[in-house]
Design a protein that fits this description.
Layout (H helix, E strand, L loop, with lengths): L2 H5 L8 E4 L8 E7 L6 E2 L4 E8 L13 E5 L2 E5 L9 E4 L5 E5 L1 E2 L5 E2 L4 E5 L2 E6 L4 E6 L4 E6 L5 E6 L4 E5 L11 E6 L5 E7 L7 E5 L5 E5 L4 E5 L5 E8 L11 H5 L11 E2 L5 E3 L2 E7 L5 E7 L5 E3 L14 E4 L2 E6 L1 H10 L8 H8 L4 E7 L1
Parallel strand pairs: 2-22, 3-27, 9-10
Antiparallel strand pairs: 1-2, 4-30, 5-6, 6-7, 7-8, 11-12, 12-13, 13-14, 15-16, 16-17, 17-18, 19-20, 20-21, 21-22, 23-25, 24-25, 25-26, 26-27, 28-29, 29-30
InterPro entries: 6-blade_b-propeller_TolB-like
Protein name: 6-bladed beta-propeller
Length: 373
């Protein structure tokens, strides 16, 4: 029901304008949201319930960490943070029960050396392996279908369209990018269709996030804008955050700011490009504040109001991904590493429930389901 809010936002209470995308793509109508933290609400006022679900842990299902979750047909497809081919893509039920494993390690047909990213379309799962220069296609029950050579193995992320795929190119910060792009599209056989947003000397890496069966988000590191794409590969909308001018990252400084430590020298707002999501009427993500403090935000796309966690750790791992389950629920995760770090740096924080905490410190990961009011 909320699709119309962010695909066809009116000018109610905000201004709309044409804005050039950071990567030099076509102009797009932009919704501007003023970032005024002094009047921001509290994230805890939006969350009705938090539920922890430890993942079943066996030799077949073990995950050292998590980098991506795709919620699809009432199952959770999970990629390990180490991109390890032997872990493949683990599939779990919403109760944390392990169901199956997709992918095989190796150099032969149907095998991958490393998992750079994965996506799902229909009854097929696609694993991109830039090291092997191919995309491996499986059925959702793990049967190998085919290998498809990659047209460009220099990838950072990708996502399935209704036909073909969208990709973002990787970037090498010590070199001048040549023939590397912030976004490009191929057909189903990996043949190029178009490229946009050629990286230049000030560019930072762009990433795609799969939000739902109809929505993709494209962002570039250090950007103050979030771009919405549909599954036809078309840019539909942009949300621009109007940060206080003295704390904005100028385009030409993004490479420099990228290398700054997140401490007292960091004097900017920076949205995390790896984990934006849309949940019901809210755009959410991670943000680094002036001074280097991390926070989680939600922006109400109806009235533009901002909500922040402000150190309450309602969202426990603030660097994890956020993935919608439905219009009122999203899922994230906690891991042994994230919980150890949190208890060390925030000793006064409330501990996890005893049974969940024991599982975490025994080496298991846990899903965290957040239900909004």
């Amino acid at each position: 029901m909320w699709a119309g809010i962010w695909l066809g936002m009116s000018a109610c209470g905000t201004r709309q304008e044409a804005a050039r995308t950071d990567a030099g793509m076509d102009d797009v109508v932009t919704r501007t949201i003023e970032w005024r933290p002094d009047s921001a609400g509290l994230l805890q006022d939006l969350v009705a319930a938090v539920r922890y679900v430890p993942l079943e842990s066996t030799p077949e299902s073990f995950l050292a960490d998590i980098s991506k979750i795709r919620v699809y047909r009432d199952e959770l497809y999970i990629m390990d943070d180490g991109m390890r081919a032997d872990y493949g893509i683990r599939v779990f039920g919403p109760d944390g029960a392990y169901r199956r494993h997709i992918g095989r390690a190796g150099k032969g047909p149907g095998e991958v050396i490393q998992i750079d990213d994965f996506t799902i379309r229909g009854d097929r799962l696609f694993i991109a392996d830039g090291h092997a220069g191919k995309m491996v296609v499986y059925t959702l029950d793990g049967q190998f279908v085919e290998d498809i050579p990659l047209a460009d193995a220099d990838l950072a992320s990708f996502a399935a369209c209704d036909s073909g795929f969208l990709w973002t190119g990787d970037i090498y910060y010590r070199e001048n990018p040549e023939n590397r792009y912030g976004l490009y599209k191929t057909d189903d056989r990996m043949q190029p269709e178009w490229k946009r947003g050629k990286y230049d000397a000030s560019s930072t890496r762009a990433l795609l996030t799969e939000v739902s069966d109809s929505l993709l988000i494209w962002m570039q590191g250090g950007s103050d804008s979030v771009y919405f794409y549909n599954r036809q590969g078309h840019l539909t909308r942009c949300i621009h955050f109007d940060f206080p001018e003295r704390h904005r990252i100028a385009y030409e400084k993004r490479r420099e700011v990228r290398d700054l430590p997140a401490d007292e020298k960091f004097d900017y707002y920076r949205i995390g490009e790896w984990n934006p999501a849309v949940v019901g009427p809210y755009l959410m993500g991670q943000i680094t504040m002036p001074g280097g403090e991390w926070d989680v935000f939600m922006a109400d796309l109806r009235d533009g109001r901002i909500y922040l966690d402000r150190g309450r750790y309602v969202v426990r791992d603030q660097t994890a991904g956020f993935y919608p389950v439905n219009d009122s629920t999203f899922v994230s995760w906690v891991t042994p590493d994230s919980e150890t770090f949190l208890e060390k740096t925030e000793p006064r924080i409330a501990k996890l429930p005893d049974d969940v905490r024991k599982r975490i410190f025994d080496g298991d990961c846990a899903l965290v389901f957040y239900t909004l009011k």
